[in-house]
Write a structure and sequence with these properties.
With 106 residues, the chain is an alpha+beta fold. It is 22% helix and 28% strand. It contains 2 helices and 3 strands.
């Protein structure tokens, strides 16, 4: 005869967040949009773009130029979406209300 016992639920140990170190020399990227998103083996990659004009040509035209790519773990991507939505709501810009009103995003 076998007796199964239920082990007490042990809370997971709290993982301490590493200290935050501000780097004043970190590069800054100005983007006017994003070109797309990709899932590359579980890493979420966002390609950023900026509208630029080449004035060396006789007829300069506005072009969308890739200015950088940012790679996120899935957790970091979720935290970015959550934080960005909260920030936009605080600024009076509601993505959910805009979508409900029929707005479309790239």
């Amino acid at each position: 005869m076998y007796v199964a016992i239920k082990s007490p639920i042990v809370p997971e140990p709290k993982v301490e967040e590493p200290p935050y170190v501000d780097n004043p020399f970190a590069p800054e990227i100005f983007a006017t949009g994003y070109s797309g998103l990709a899932n590359m083996g579980g890493v979420i990659v966002m390609t950023l773009e900026s509208a630029r004009c080449d004035h060396s040509r006789p007829q300069p035209a506005l072009e969308r130029v890739v200015v950088g790519r940012v790679a996120f773990t899935p957790t970091a991507a979720l935290e970015l979406v959550t934080g960005l939505n909260q920030f936009l709501e605080q600024q009076g810009i509601s993505p959910s209300k805009m979508l409900a009103a029929g707005a479309t995003f790239q």
